[in-house]
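@channel sequence for tomorrow's demo:
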Amino acid sequence: MIRLLQQVNWKWRSICLGWLAFLFVMVSNAACTPNTTTQSSTPSPTAECRMVQHSVGETCVPLNPQRIVVLDNLDGALALGVKPIAYLGTADPFLMTHLDNTEEPVETIGLTETGPNLEAIVRLKPDLILGMTWHTGESMYQPLSQIAPTVLVDVDSDGQWKIPLTKFAEALGKTAEAEKILADYSARLAEFKTAMGDRLDQLTVSILRVYPDALAFYLKNSFPGSILDDAGLKRPPAQAIDRTGQNQQRIDKELLPMLEADVMFVWTYGHTKEIAQNAQTALSQLKTNPLWLALDVVQRNQVYDVSSYHWLGFGPIAANLVLDDLFKYLVEGF
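structure tokens (generated this afternoon):
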């Protein structure tokens, strides 16, 4: 009799354990099911959102986002007509006119050097976050996607500025707008090439940045290098190369002859007022250096000081401002 009761007890205990195991699995699956913005999620689009595959995962993006935070590629977002509620870093002056047209003040949510302030983003209650992996890193995708649907884009160099423009446009449902932006850019390139005529194949163009304590020329895969390449302009041999993970090459003043070209564009830059002033001082000193004065391009007076803001930009607005300089110095004033 005792053995029978024990068998009955074990039978019920097994049934109970089986049900408990089933419930545990169901609860675990529910708890582990990722939301629509995690890297491993594969949700279906609904009437309220569209699926967007990007460099870090797949995200269901609201069809008509109203509160957008832009972590990178502010230029591209503004060109697409986005009115962000916040952005990362400091907007270059040529972008401020676009930000001034927004209906409410646009906040900054951190510096590019330190990354976004998550608490500030949470407080703003965005419905979409757009960015790149440059300043956020892939590790930031998970916390960002817990705040709002997030789309991040990865590129190898700043010369690939058209990639995030296209991906942001896809996320925003503005593919037609991006296509027009790029078509207009291509039309201006064609106009420039026609205006240059035979000189296009004859000119070499050097681009130089002056730091407070160094010089650097920009490579083919850099942002300014990509525009010169799009425009069909040739570069000095040392500058006509792509280098993964590097868009510029620093040189000592003893190597100034490497900069020789038919035309040279020069700029200084500093993210603080002091650094900017020191860079400008360094440029003034460079212009008295005998090796600099010996350059044919200097002696022909075909060195042009240009704005670092758009020559170091990233996006179609900056690209068109660089084209403005090419028209100004190589077509109209040559």
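heads up for whoever presents: The two ends are 111 Å apart (CA to CA).
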